[in-house]
Amino acid sequence: MYELTWINSIPLILAGTASGFINTLAGGGSFLTLPALMLLGMPADLANGTNRVSVLAQSASTVQGFYKEGKFDTKAALWILAPSALGALAGAWTAALIPAGYLKPMLLGIMLIVAAVIVIKPQWISPPPDERTYTVRERPIAFFWFFLTGIYAGFIQAGVGFLSLMVLGGVLRYDLLRANALKIAISGMFGIVPLIVFALAGKVLWIPGAVLGAATVVGSRIGVRFALRAPERVLRWFLFAAVICVTVAAFLKK
Question: Where do the H-state alpha helices sit in the chain?
């Protein structure tokens, strides 16, 4: 059984802070927080449910931070979140019909594609800051791609932030800074329903979840400040490093 003490809360706080920072700039922070929760003695199902508290806390904090700095496109958010939510419902409904073993190759394949695009065609995911952005209504194909992103999120949450960045940058032509702000909103929306489900099933431990959530908020605030000041090239290479690390972690995970 898990036991939260001042001593073992230290790695939890460090993992949460690092996760909030990484998720704000790229993604894959749960590869840090899930092991930290399991170090407390939590079984995987409790750790998975408890981790959703930090996902929502960090998402809300990051979106608020970008919004305060004028980098969150509020008008576009609804058009982006709606197809993503519909896809997530479809994905969650069909997830039970597809064996989980098929999802790991899908994740690895997507991560490798994203990594290749960042290096070979960086302009596909990170257009110049002065390039015009488009709405979903102006490029309806984006609705389809966000729907597919939602379906993927319904199957497996890991790596969905990278997929969202591909659509936001490649189709709607958001620069990496503003794309990250919208990506966090999408990821937060994907986390609401699972948290409710886990909570109703008694799979959320609220005290360690609150500690982890507070740490991720601190990390996200640091991440927002860094993102606002860092050159686009630095953000792009940080994203590339995160994609590679997530790919390796997913490959090694049994």
Answer: 9-25, 30-38, 44-68, 74-95, 103-120, 122-125, 141-155, 160-170, 176-200, 206-229, 232-252
Burial of 120 (0-12, 13-18, 19+ CB in 10 A): exposed
Instruction: Domain ranges for the chain, please list them.
Output: 9-252
Amino acid, res. 233: R
Could you tell me the two tokens for 221? Answer: 């605030």
| Tokens matching residue 228 | 């606002």
Q: What is the pLDDT of residues 147-175, one digit of tens each?
A: 888 877 766 666 677 788 888 888 898 88
User: In which residue are the tokens 């630095």 written?
Assistant: 234
Residues 99-111 have a mean pLDDT of 63
Give the C-alpha separation, 62 to 50, whole Å: 19
How far is Cα 120 from Cα 118, in angstroms, rounded to an integer? Answer: 6
Q: Which two tokens stand for residue 151?
A: 């379906």
Give the burial string for 227-237 (b: 16+ CB within 10 Å, else e).
Answer: beeeeeeebbe
Is residue 54 exposed (0-12), middle (13-18) or buried (19+ Cβ within 10 Å)? buried
Length of the chain: 254
Cα–Cα distance, 177 to 106 (Å, whole number): 27
